[in-house]
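User: Structure tokens for both sequences below?

Assistant:
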Amino acid sequence: MPDLPLLAAVSQFLFREARLLDEQKWPEWLELYSDDAVFWVPATKMAGGYTSDPEYELNFIYIKGRVGIEARIFRLGTNSSMASTPPPRTRHLVTGVMIDEAGADHVRACASWQVVSFSEERGQQIRSGSYEYMLRREHQSFRIARKKILLLEHVIDGYFDVYMV
């Protein structure tokens, strides 16, 4: 039997992250991440499956440390991100949240997602896949220590950025 209060708390946390992304509330979104957080979107292999070693294999996005994520967000505000000039509007749909493991200081969780983004220049884009989270328990909430984003599609048409997946 799942720990329903924990599942509800984790679900609310993931839904909050999605809402902050959609509302482009970057400082609040960044606060969800631990200082040593990893944000990873592995590439897909030609033979199928995903790359498994972000240090030595190709990735769509691989950022180590919150400082790196902050630098990425800084680029959004300075119009130096080709994928985000101008920034498209997004809607994140997060569903199927499940707890894979719960320890005293961490929770491993997964969820399915779909993101619809729209800009005048590129029109509407739809991406989907799954999330794998390692959350650290802090006080009465969580911090994201690791977010792995598995894209359903293996061929990317156009650009995407950290807030569009």
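Moving on to the next sequence.
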Amino acid sequence: MNLGNRLKQERQRLRLTQAELAAIGGVEPNALMHYEHGSRQPRADFLAALDMIGVDLLYVITGTTIPESSPDLVEAEKDLVLNLRALPREDQSSITRIIRSLAENPLMYMENQTIDG
């Protein structure tokens, strides 16, 4: 599978049309069509714009996602990372801040819990 196919997969994963993704990336829809068909390569500024909406650029460029052989990640952690990557960039940042806050202040979180939950 080439870069164009992976770009198309990411566009479809995010449920965007070619016209929508082209507009986000600042190119004409026919340019995106050429990228997806592999007849042209996208520029860095186009890819940077896609990164802002949660396109998995590592996957688009290299075909690699989370290393499957990583002994440090258990299955639940892999699922968490994959689900986080599926979110728009703004939501990824919000979730990351929440997790960081909980990790840095676990007692504060526990003190605020009620009996119900």
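User: Anything stand out in the second?

Assistant: DSSP finds eight helices and no strands in the chain.
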